[in-house]
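INTERNAL AUDIT FORM
Audit reference: QA-55
Scope: verify that the stored structure record matches its stored sequence.
Auditor: D.O.
Record contents follow.
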Amino acid sequence: MPTNSLHIDVEAKPPCHPRACAIQDCLARNNYSEAKCQDAVQALYQCCQAFYQRHGNEASSPSCPQPSMLRLKLKQQDEAR
């Protein structure tokens, strides 16, 4: 997902919803193989990180994990690289 769409997706209603939908679409296209959709998951996490940076850790979106879980997931992804 292009970076220039990050601002648009952060401001979507609900925030980051387009990226959450992209994960569902990817999973459906790939016989629900999570391994084939890691780019879509990463795009959602990037959006959620930008959302929390903009609106604070008390903000919420049904499309985003809680800030502490998001930080854990991002750390796990960094360690896996």
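Auditor finding: record pair retrieved intact. Residues 3-80 form one domain.
Action required: none
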